[in-house]
C-alpha cells in the first residue's frame, strides 16, 4: 500500500466515529445505501455520504440521512470503523463473516469500549450472505419469545357474563409487543371457564374473540389448556374448577388431594380418580380428553399457523407435580419441605394394592410417618436424613417409586390422548404444532442428598438418583417438549442455609433432555431488571441448551410498559430473536451490565 493511500484511509478511520440509528423492523435492503465497506475501494466522499456524515450531504437533504435515521425507533451503535487493522483478515472473511461480535459476558461489562476497536461494519449484502454460512449453526439458537396474558384478562360485566377487559388498552399493548419483536402470546384456557356450568357443554366465545384479537396483531399463540384452579393464588381474579365438579367435591372431598392431616387441596383432582367414573359417568381422564378434542375441533383453522404450541395442564399451576407446597392458604412457607399428598381414599387404595404386589401389605396402610410437616427443615426430619425407614430404606424406595410413578403415569395417559388428537397436524411442517408439558421448579434443598422438597412434589430426584430422566423418556415417546421455570434465578439469590440451586436444577434437566426433547423455558418470578433478563439470556444460550425452542415471559401487566422496564425488555427480546450470541449490536448489549453477585432477598420460589 503506498503512503498516500495509507494516510488517506487512516484519516477516514479517525473521522468515522458515528452513531448510526436504524429500525430493526425495516428490511435490510433499505440500509444498503447507508453503509458500505471501505476495504473494496470507496472514496472519502462516498463513505461519508453513505452514513450521512458530511456537512454537504446534511445541507442538501435538509438534515440528511443521519437526521432521518435518528428519528426512527430503535438504535444500535457501530464504533471505531477501521479499514486498516487486520485488512487481510477482513478481505478473507468479507463473504462469510458478519463481524458482529459474539454474545458473551464481557460485552455486558464496563470494558465494552476496549472491544470497540475491532468492530467493523460490513456491507448489508455481505451480512445477508453470511447468514447462510457462518450463522447457519446459530439459527437454532434463536429463541422465540411468548408473553403470558394478564391474570385479569377477563372480567364480569353488569350482567355477570365474562368479557375481555380493557379491550382498547389490550389491543395497543399487543401491537407494542409485536413491534418489540415478541413472537407470540401465551393464553391460559381454563376448564373452569369453558365447561363451567354443565358437563360436555363448552363455551369458547371468550377465547374466539381473544384469539382473533391476537392474530390480528400479527402474533402467534401458545395455548395452555388448564385443568386446575388458581383461586387460592388470585382470590379476586382466580378461576375455580367447573361448578359441576365443585358440587361433586362438596359431597366427596376425596376427589381432591389430601395431606396426612386430612386437609384437602381443591386446586386439582387427585390422580386416584383418573380412571374412576365419578363425574357423571366419565373418568377424570375422559373429562380431560373430551376437553382437548373439543378444543382441537373448535380451533382447527388456527392450529399450526397461529397456534404453534399447546401446553396441557397436568397438575396444580398446570405443572406435573403434587400440591406439596400450597400457596395462598397459609399452610406452607418457603423454604419448607412440604408434605406428601397421597391420603385421599383413592390414592391410599392404590398404595395398598401396590404394597401387596411386592409382598409387603403392611407398607400399604400409611405413607411415611417421619417425614415432618409443610414447614419442616431437612436437618430435623428422619425420613430425609439417616432415620429408620428413611428415603433410602427398602420402604422409602418403594414408597417414592410408587409416589413418583403415579405422577408419570398420569402425565403419560393425558399426553397420549393429546398427542392422538393432534396427530393429523404433525404430518407436515406447515401445520405442525408442538405439544408441551410443564414441570415445577423445586430448587430449594437441591444441594442436600435427599432433595426433600422435590420428593414431596413427586420428583424422585436425589443425589443418588436422577428423577428427571424417566420424565424425559416419557415425553419423548409423545414428541412433547418440556416447559421448565426458574431461568431468571441464580444460586446466590437465596440464603446459603436453604441449600438452593436453581442453576444446578436447570443444568441437570438440560443434560438429560439434550438431543431427546425440546425445551421451552420460562421465568418463575416477574423480572424486568437487567440482572434477571441477563440471566435468562445466559440460560437460553447455555452450551447444554441446544434444544431450547422458545421462552415464555411471565407475565404481561402494566409494569412491563413502564419506561425503564420497557427499555430493558425490548433489547432483551431483540437479543433472543437474534440468537443471543452473534447477531446483536453493541449499544444494546451495553445496556445490560454484568449481574451483581449480591443476594436478592426478594427472590421467591415458583
UniProtKB/TrEMBL annotation:
Instruction: Select a single GO molecular function from the record's annotations and give it.
Output: beta-amylase activity
Check the record and name the Gene3D superfamilies matching this protein.
Glycosidases
The UniProt record lists the EC number as: 3.2.1.2
* Biological process annotations from GO: polysaccharide catabolic process
Q: Name one Pfam family in it.
A: Glyco_hydro_14
Q: Which UniProt keywords apply?
A: Carbohydrate metabolism, Glycosidase, Hydrolase, Polysaccharide degradation
Catalysed transformations (reactions): Hydrolysis of (1->4)-alpha-D-glucosidic linkages in polysaccharides so as to remove successive maltose units from the non-reducing ends of the chains
Asked whether the keyword Hydrolase is assigned, the reply is yes
Family affiliation:
Belongs to the glycosyl hydrolase 14 family.
Protein name as it appears in the record:
Beta-amylase
Species: Linum tenue
Amino acid at each position: 500500500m503506498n503512503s498516500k493511500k495509507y494516510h488517506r484511509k487512516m484519516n477516514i478511520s479517525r473521522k468515522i466515529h458515528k452513531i448510526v440509528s436504524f429500525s430493526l423492523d425495516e428490511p435490510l435492503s433499505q440500509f444498503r445505501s447507508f453503509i458500505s465497506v471501505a476495504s473494496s475501494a470507496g472514496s472519502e466522499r462516498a463513505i461519508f455520504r453513505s452514513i450521512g456524515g458530511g456537512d454537504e450531504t446534511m445541507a442538501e437533504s435538509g438534515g440528511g440521512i443521519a437526521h432521518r435515521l435518528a428519528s426512527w425507533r430503535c438504535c444500535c451503535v457501530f464504533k471505531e470503523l477501521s479499514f486498516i487493522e487486520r485488512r487481510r483478515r477482513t478481505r478473507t472473511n468479507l463473504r462469510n463473516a458478519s463481524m458482529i461480535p459474539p454474545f458473551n459476558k464481557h460485552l455486558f461489562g464496563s470494558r465494552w469500549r476496549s472491544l470497540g476497536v475491532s468492530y467493523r461494519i460490513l456491507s448489508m449484502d455481505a451480512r445477508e450472505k453470511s447468514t447462510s454460512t457462518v450463522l447457519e449453526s446459530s439459527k437454532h439458537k434463536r429463541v422465540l419469545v411468548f408473553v403470558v396474558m394478564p391474570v385479569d384478562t377477563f372480567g364480569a360485566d353488569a350482567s355477570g357474563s365474562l368479557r375481555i377487559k380493557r379491550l382498547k388498552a389490550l389491543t395497543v399493548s399487543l401491537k407494542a409487543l409485536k413491534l418489540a419483536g415478541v413472537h407470540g402470546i401465551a393464553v391460559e384456557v381454563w376448564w373452569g371457564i369453558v365447561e363451567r356450568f354443565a358437563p360436555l357443554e363448552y363455551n369458547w366465545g371468550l377465547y374466539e374473540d381473544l384469539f382473533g384479537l391476537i392474530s390480528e396483531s400479527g402474533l402467534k399463540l401458545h395455548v395452555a389448556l388448564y385443568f386446575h384452579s388458581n383461586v387460592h393464588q388470585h382470590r379476586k381474579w382466580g378461576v375455580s374448577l367447573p361448578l359441576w365438579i365443585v358440587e361433586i367435591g362438596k359431597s366427596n372431598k376425596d376427589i381432591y388431594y389430601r395431606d396426612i392431616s386430612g386437609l384437602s387441596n381443591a386446586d386439582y383432582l387427585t390422580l386416584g380418580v383418573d380412571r374412576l367414573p365419578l363425574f357423571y359417568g366419565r373418568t377424570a381422564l375422559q373429562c380431560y380428553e373430551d376437553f382437548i378434542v373439543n378444543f382441537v375441533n373448535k380451533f382447527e383453522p388456527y392450529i399450526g399457523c397461529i397456534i404453534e404450541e399447546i401446553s396441557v395442564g397436568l397438575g396444580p399451576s398446570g405443572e406435573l407435580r403434587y400440591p406439596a407446597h400450597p400457596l395462598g392458604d397459609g399452610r406452607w412457607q418457603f423454604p419448607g419441605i412440604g408434605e406428601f399428598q397421597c391420603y385421599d381414599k383413592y390414592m391410599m387404595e392404590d398404595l395398598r394394592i401396590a404394597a401387596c404386589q411386592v409382598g409387603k401389605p403392611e407398607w400399604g396402610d400409611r405413607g411415611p410417618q417421619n417425614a415432618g410437616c409443610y414447614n419442616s427443615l431437612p436437618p430435623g426430619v428422619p425420613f430425609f436424613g439417616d432415620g429408620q425407614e428413611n428415603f433410602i430404606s427398602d420402604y422409602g424406595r418403594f414408597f417414592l417409586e410408587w409416589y413418583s410413578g403415579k405422577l408419570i403415569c398420569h402425565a403419560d395417559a393425558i399426553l397420549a390422548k393429546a398427542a392422538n388428537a393432534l396427530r393429523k397436524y404433525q404430518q407436515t411442517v406447515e401445520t405442525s404444532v408442538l405439544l408441551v408439558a410443564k414441570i415445577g421448579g423445586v430448587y430449594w434443598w437441591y444441594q442436600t442428598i435427599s432433595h426433600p422438597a422435590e420428593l414431596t412434589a413427586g420428583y424422585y430426584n436425589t443425589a443418588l438418583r436422577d428423577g428427571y430422566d424417566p420424565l424425559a423418556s416419557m415425553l419423548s415417546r409423545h414428541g412433547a417438549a418440556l416447559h421448565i421455570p426458574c431461568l431468571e434465578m441464580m444460586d446466590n439469590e437465596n440464603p446459603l442455609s436453604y441449600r438452593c440451586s436453581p442453576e444446578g436444577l436447570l443444568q441437570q434437566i438440560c443434560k438429560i433432555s439434550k438431543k431427546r426433547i425440546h425445551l421451552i423455558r420460562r421465568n418463575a418470578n416477574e423480572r424486568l431488571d437487567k440482572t434477571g433478563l441477563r440471566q435468562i439470556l445466559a440460560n437460553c444460550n447455555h452450551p447444554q441448551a441446544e434444544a431450547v425452542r422458545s421462552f415464555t415471559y411471565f407475565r404481561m401487566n402494566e409494569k412491563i410498559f413502564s419506561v425503564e422496564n420497557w427499555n430493558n425488555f425490548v433489547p432483551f427480546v431483540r437479543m433472543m430473536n437474534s440468537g443471543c450470541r452473534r447477531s446483536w449490536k453493541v449499544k444494546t448489549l451495553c445496556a445490560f451490565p454484568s449481574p451483581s453477585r449480591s443476594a436478592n432477598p426478594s427472590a421467591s420460589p415458583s
